[in-house]
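hey so i finaly got around to running the thing on Ubiquitin-like domain-containing protein from Caenorhabditis remanei. pasting the sequence first so u can double check i didnt mess up the copy paste, my clipboard has been acting weird all day
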Amino acid sequence: MPDFSTQTEEFTPFSVISLDGTSHVAMSGKAAATVIRIKISYSSQTGKPLRNMRLCLRGRLLDDDETLGFFGY
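ok and heres what it spat out for the 3d tokens, dont ask me to read them lol
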């Protein structure tokens, strides 16, 4: 698992980072929705908590363990 305390990621309105460190992007123009489940609480291998990870979708702070739906436009 990547060290999220030092990792940075630039988010687009249709991009979100998952627990395994990969970016999932719902492409615009697609009719189907891609649902991504996120849990925003991590612990490092040493057991110490990492810095809080705050994800925003179009300016709205995501809640812990929130399920997101992405729809293409």
